[in-house]
Design brief:
single chain; 33% helix; alpha+beta; 6-stranded antiparallel barrel; 23% strand; PH_domain
């Protein structure tokens, strides 16, 4: 289309010549231009590629048409009269000056011709020889002057023709910039209006109190409702299709006078009415410990005094976008990153941080009912995200064969071991044994994608938890973490998706939904809701809270079907007893903002300890230098370690090629303390602890450990 036709197209049209075409995944296409963004979804990857090819061809054609538009079409420009006068004013001045020059040229030619005639007449006269030669020379100079003046006039005419030929191009460019400015102003005005209405709605909304109805998001929810807006922020807060089938429900607190029960193991929480929940045992005794250092058992030794601070984070300024702009679409683990974007902990230590609220599992051991036990397991699964709310820095990628132990058997009743069992893709195996009656193990592979404006981190792999006395075996998987404002603005992190916790012995289930942040939602930020149900699908407890603060549990005394929602789904109404707090986040230590927002446990994870394996993360030199504030030295050391690891990988690849040529089998890298087995519950091939580490530590025999540092 011509510019004139484009000016009269319907609302919502995107000019392909200036559009940006991108692909989100195997089926989604993003088409954006200025403030407008369209998300298109194809049925298959092949169809998506056909659409992308067609759009790219159309874009190339639009660009050619824009550049080759004829300058003769007078109605082509939708510019205002002021724009035309602004551009044509200099052209009129140039034309006027050119006319003056042409007049002067005519006068020069006229007088020059007269001069030449006079000189010719003088030549015809009988004059001395010297005079004739002089007159002839003057005649030649007059001819040269006339030729030069004609050339000057021709050059001026060429300049004016060139200026006229480019005038329409300048006018188009100016008009395009004006349209972009107007569109930006409209977008900002629209956002300001939305902000105003949100502020008014926030001031007029009633406070949330215990006993008021809380409605879980249905189907696509508020996040999807914002898709029609032209704000770029929507790209960061939508398209969580996996949650479309989440059940909608309403919880209403029942009158305690009409609902009393006996024989329950849920008791004595700090919130709610004690008479509603029996006090026969202390399973639900207040989970709100006042301090991380509070003792959790009389059978354990007093806790060792550990460090409570690390050196303050240096104030280094570095532009993340300047490093990552060429890395869009790549795996995060394959991007060379300076330590400026790291925190002085490895991924193995971050994995161990999940045990910060291990006492929830200690309490779960005492539960006689599997559904009550499920409540604590659910709270534990949510608690592992509480440390991430301010932690936007990237942990160190562990080297292949790197390990990390956390031996708190005498103090807290458990000991933990992690090992990096694969480098590409990065995978870590984790095993925890507690003498209080539970064992946890997992193999986590981190899949991450940098999308330009945000970073998606997708942990892959199942987490297994088994209680020794009951044999209850729980399995669940982690949700997706998203780091926003990568390019500009303050970094912030969000958790979104669903967790399904399954007890493979009793078939109890808990469905937890992590609601993603939405600019247009009135929900509490970082909200988590869920229902605990038995093998028959009967709901027993409602879980509610936020992943960065606390989780509550409410006993269901009655359930019924409510009205049908606007999306056509029928909501379930749960009548519950007053909620009890199962888990509440520990406060951060003093000066945490200058210590990478580490919790009290995180501050101790990299504390030097004796007798650990030579592959332990505490001994990693670049990480230790970074913690000490020597970032320049840490960057040099990090490059050395990575190059050393690449050399080992190249040698291993050469050995594999040599074995293949000789017709031999090549096993590749074999983990030190873990072995691959098919899990009997999930049927997946995972790394499980094979034993030997703690015995080697007692003997201080680390002969099997490679030299990785």
């Amino acid at each position: 289309r011509t510019q004139a036709e484009m000016a009269h197209t319907c609302r919502g049209t995107i000019n392909l010549s200036t559009a940006h075409i991108d692909t989100e995944d195997s089926c989604n296409i993003v088409l954006s231009n200025g403030g407008r963004t369209y998300h298109l979804k194809a049925n298959s990857e092949v169809e998506r590629q056909r659409w992308v090819t067609a759009l790219e061809l159309a874009k190339a054609k639009a660009i050619r048409m824009r550049n080759n538009q004829s300058d003769d079409s007078g109605d082509e420009e939708p510019a205002s009269q002021s724009d035309k006068s602004e551009l044509h004013g200099p052209l009129k001045t140039l034309s006027s000056k050119l006319e003056d020059l042409s007049t002067c040229n005519e006068l020069i030619a006229k007088h020059g011709a007269a001069l030449q005639r006079s000189l010719s007449e003088l030549e015809s006269l009988r004059l001395p020889a010297d005079s004739g030669e002089k007159i002839k020379a003057v005649n030649e100079r007059a001819t040269l002057f006339r030729i030069t003046s004609n050339a000057m006039i021709n050059a001026c005419r060429d300049f004016l023709d060139l200026a006229e030929s480019h005038s329409r191009k300048w006018q188009r460019l100016l008009q395009h910039e004006r349209e972009q400015r107007i569109r930006l102003e409209e977008t900002i005005e629209q956002l300001a209006k939305q902000h105003n209405s949100l502020e008014r709605a926030c001031r007029g909304a009633p406070g949330l109190a215990s006993g008021t109805a809380s409605i879980a998001s249905t189907a696509k929810g508020d996040v999807q409702s914002a898709k029609g807006e032209a704000s770029d922020e929507d790209e960061e807060t939508e398209y969580f299709d996996a949650m479309e089938d989440a059940p909608a429900f309403i919880t209403v607190t029942a009158d305690p006078k009409h609902h009393r029960r006996s024989g329950s193991n849920l008791s004595g929480a700090s919130e709610g009415h004690p008479e509603d929940w029996n006090l026969e045992d202390s399973v639900f005794e207040s989970s709100n410990q006042s301090s991380y250092n509070e003792s959790t058992g009389k059978d354990l030794l007093p806790r060792k005094r550990r460090r409570t601070r690390i050196p303050d984070k240096p104030n280094y300024s570095l532009n993340l976008w300047s490093i990552m702009k060429n890395c869009i679409g790549k795996e995060l683990s394959k991007i060379p990153m300076p330590v400026n974007f790291n925190e002085p902990l490895s991924m193995l230590q971050r994995l161990t941080e999940d045990l910060e609220y291990h006492e929830l599992l200690d309490k779960a051991v005492k539960c006689e009912s599997s559904t009550e036990q499920m409540c604590f397991v659910a709270a534990f699964s949510v608690s592992s995200y509480s440390t991430t709310v301010h932690r936007t820095a990237k942990p160190f990628n562990p080297l292949l064969g790197e390990t990390y132990e956390l031996d708190r058997l005498e103090e807290l009743g458990f000991r933990s071991l992690c090992e990096q069992v694969s480098h590409h893709p990065p995978a870590a195996a984790h095993h925890v044994y507690s003498r209080r009656g539970w064992t946890l193990w997992q193999e986590i592979t981190i899949a991450s994608k940098f999308r330009g404006k945000y970073l998606s981190i997708m942990p892959l792999g199942a987490i297994h938890l088994e209680f020794h006395s009951s044999g209850n075996h729980y399995v669940w998987r982690k949700v997706t973490s998203t780091v926003h404002n990568i390019i500009v603005g303050k970094l912030w992190i969000d958790q979104s998706g669903e967790i399904e916790i399954v007890n493979h012995k009793s078939k109890d289930k808990c469905q937890l939904k992590f609601t993603p942040y939405s600019y247009f939602s009135r929900d509490v930020p970082r909200k988590v809701t869920g229902v605990v149900s038995d093998a028959d699908g009967k709901a027993h407890y409602v879980m509610s809270g936020t992943w960065d603060e606390k989780m509550e549990c409410s006993k269901i005394v009655h359930s019924s079907h409510g009205s049908t929602s606007t999306e056509g789904k029928q909501k379930t109404v749960y009548q519950t007893l007053s909620p009890k707090v199962l888990w509440r986040k520990y406060p951060l230590p003093e000066n945490a903002e200058n210590m990478y927002f580490f919790s009290e446990l995180a501050l101790t994870l990299n504390e030097p300890e004796e007798r650990v394996a030579p592959t332990d993360s505490r001994l990693r030199p670049d990480q230790r230098l970074m913690e000490s504030g020597r970032w320049d030295e840490a960057n040099v050391e990090k490059q050395r370690l990575e190059e050393k690891q690449r050399a080992v990988r190249r040698r291993r690849e050469a050995e594999a090629v040599e074995a293949l040529e000789e017709g031999k089998d090549y096993e590749g890298y074999i983990p030190l303390w873990f072995e691959r087995k098919v899990d009997a519950v999930t049927g997946e091939l995972i790394c499980v602890y094979k034993g030997g580490y703690w015995e080697a530590k007692d003997k201080q025999d680390w002969s099997v450990c490679p030299d990785i540092f």
